[in-house]
Records
---
Amino acid sequence: MSNKDEVRLIVDGKRLDGRAFDELRPIKIKVGVLKRADGSCYLEMGKNKVVVAVYGPREVHPRHLQDPVKAVVRYRYNMAPFSVEERKRPGPDRRSVEISKVSREALEAIVMKELFPRSGIDVFVEVLQADAGSRTACLNAASVALVDAGVPMKGMISSVAVAKVDGELVLDPMKEEDFYGEADMPFAFFIRNDRIESIALLQMDGRVTKDEFIKAVKMAKDGAMRIYKMQKEAIKSKYVVESEEEVD
Amino acid sequence: MRSIVLPGDLLATNPKVAGSGTYVEGGKVYAKFLGLLDKTDTSVRVIPLRGKYIPSIGDVVIGIVREVTANGWVVDINSPYQGFLPLSENPNVRPNKKPNEVLEIDDIIIAKVTNIDPKMKVTLTMKDKMCRAVRFGRVIAINPARVPRVIGKKGSMIKMFKTELGVQIVVGKNGLIWASGDRRKVNIVEEAIYIIEEEAHTEGLTDRITEFVRKRKGEFDEQ
């Protein structure tokens, strides 16, 4: 943060890419891109590009991981070696294991695991291109893919980050803002029937004041609702085509 | 027109109307999974569009023998849970025959679900006139959520296949369908079933499939 004076992230009340403080990056969602998976989703959030495949409920191997009373949810967040400028060494590392854990816990809050004892639901997330907030992009995509797989859930997850940059709170930070900013807070919300029910994930690095935090939650909720609408739209558009002719 | 609902969509505020594919929380009825809304005055249910086959008692299923044990067979029923067929539930068992002489690995059987315990251990039986080992014919796999449409209203679709083409068909609730008869006729059935799967939620499906079957039948009668 010593080079704060050199890097100005907010110029004339606009961000580097011309967005307003509470503006999301453009989002593109495609449902059912992988034929062999039970559910799948491709999602772009700004420069983030992620693919999610969902399998299950299915038998769990190895057997000792089975839970006799509910399904186990497994979430694997993985970055492709070419997803960042400097080659990322393939395989799980400290960071991706952590992201997998918190994201899995966010999804476990909505998946109705108790309906499928002794089975497993696998969510595989591949980051093809990363540009800050990839865990939020992945969660958004995973939520859509789970719906596509027909997995029973209480609602959906929508996720977005808020960062503090040059003393201002900004929604959905991009790489530069994340890198040179003062704080970064990814949020994920459990949304049911167009209403935010609870926070399913909340992380923070850097620091903000209490007032700023309250404002950040508000901004994130607002952004998440917009993402939720896009997620719904994406799923419906896939199925509307095939039920267009139906009359009853 | 039936509308598409997503998990968590509010369907009703009276918990008494909650049907399959819904859940109740705080006195309100929500959708459990992606599906089509079927709403009447007395009930609300969601017809699934996707999803795995979850066994329930009384279902006729088609399974593949995966393992032979001393007291029965482990059967893959195209579901998160394997089925188990005990020796005592197979009428073909004779005292002088070993289990693997009755059914071998990779044999396909038509069986019925008799019991499911809370741990989702599925028990099968073959003591039913429908049940038997399948040694000929063809097995067609479809999305289990589409099975009701392949059967049709009160079995109308199946009846149509039988009368129009004279092939034998057994539809397993788990999304596997066994068809047997003249090869060309079974080909037609297979094509028709894939069409049904594709257009499962359109109206007048039985009529259109009947037309399709007649047309295809006419084609090879000319040859």
---
Amino acid sequence: MSALIEFHGITKSYGQGQARFQALRGVDLCIEEGDFVAVMGPSGSGKSTSMNIIGCLDVPSGGEYLFHGTHVERLDRNQRALLRRHYLGFVFQGFNLLSRTTAQENVELPLLYRGESAGRRATAARQALQQVGLGGWEHHTSAELSGGQQQRVAIARAIATRPTLLLADEPTGNLDSQRSHEIMELLNSLNRDQGITVLMVTHEPDMAEYAKRVIHFRDGQVEQDERLRELAS
Amino acid sequence: MMFWNSLLLALREIRRNLLRSFLTILGIVIGVGAVITMVTLGNGATQAIKDQVSSLGSNLLQVRPGQRMFGPGGGGAPQFKLEDVKAIRQQISGLAAVAPQVSRNATVVAGTNNWSTSVTGSNLDYFTAGNWALAEGRLFTPEEENAGQTVCVLGATIQKELYGSSSPLGENLRVKNFSCQVIGVLKAKGQSGMGRDQDDSVIMPLRAVQRRLLGSRDISNIQISVANADNISRVQEQLTTLLRERRRLGPGADDNFNVLDTRQIADALSGTTQVLTMLLGAVASVSLLVGGIGIMNIMLVSVTERTREIGIRLAIGALEREVLLQFLIEAVMLAALGGLIGIILATGASVLLAKLMQVPFTFNPTINLLSFVFSAGIGILFGYMPAKRAARLDPIEALRHE
């Protein structure tokens, strides 16, 4: 398995002078393709900052970040946007669907930015919705869907582009335990059947149970890194 | 490709917020509507005045005693005599018609109908100079003119008021204490530039009116039609020189008569309406500017309100310039849509108001196109700042925004 993500001595600090806050204090990390990683840790431990850097939404203050061997810290804003567009899928805690927009249109959005034709957008979006178990709900707006369904739409949006890496930031944070387990099953199957690498931040240990590898952050550093299941080779 | 996507996204956004979109563009709608309506009506009014003045006759000079252009002729200044008219005819070349005139208001009676009108005495040149055409009958003969016989030619209004649909030819029309025979009826010309009904008059030979109505040989007004428009200023100068001589005015004395070119009146009047049109247009375009500020306001609110949405777009891979373009296109589309609705409303309003104000309606493509382009330009101008702000957002901050 080749390394998808490599962190070499990544540091990140916010603010200036007295108000300076060191969020990451030299993180070394390597995540292989096909892995399913849960990132845990208390708030302020640096897990969200790491996720933002991995997701190319933020840049490190120091160190090297290689994505597929590309130095992300050397890319500019637009190049990072293109990297997100082509390789990454995002799932957020708050779902973050466009309001007053149908499920279909939400899922088509990233395809639109990739310049897919209207016909291919529609097909891919329908397929993705089918995959998350929302076939037949294409024309419902977010307000007409339950929380679990909204998160499914968000996942459909993230996988419609067939990304290499799916980043999920507390995907079950706003859901009850049954819906949470359903979402985790869904992520698990995407990882298992489609080989999408999944990186998930979570507070809940029983959600982390689904992962193949759990990384604990504390005080801006990796505290513990345990492998629950072997990577299929 | 990127452009069409942004266009699609902008369209979706407008459709998603129909009411707000409509309220946003209301300012532009009103602005464009006001500008176009004002300019169209103003141009119509100018056109109306030009038409009416040209219907008075072509290449006309009015010679009147007194120094003032308008108002009752004369004051203390001596009136003209027939000898003045003869002298003009003999000494100035290039004249198509020289029509001495006198007129007096009088009540005319036919059968049981009576009508108060102006009775004008003149010669055959009157009809040439004033572009009058006969509807029926004939004009007076030179013999009738010279003898001052009581024959008369009626304006269209008189015929309508006194005789209705029947022909007045050969009938006797009583004017004050004498009666005259109707020999012809003129074609209608309508209102003059000053709001006077030109068809409301009875025309008789000059001598008849002088003798029967005025009891004097004075001539209050001479209308002169110049054959070639290029000669108007030359004729005007020669007339002035000649009349100064005949009226024995010394080199230092002011003219006690004036020679007026009808074109000058037309130019003066249409100049006034053009200035008014520009002024009204300028006032209206201020509202267009206000409309633009309204768009900027809403777009700024919209950017704040949609911060999270912008964050989502940026996170899933929208480029800065794609977000910029989307918001810019949204603003321009709103503004252009407002411009389009404004044009439609203005056309309707102009047609209606033109009818009401009795001015001709002419569709002016320039001002319509200009207003449309201007409103779209306002969209770019006032949409750029909010769009730039949206595109510059930090995706992490934007996603965290509540």
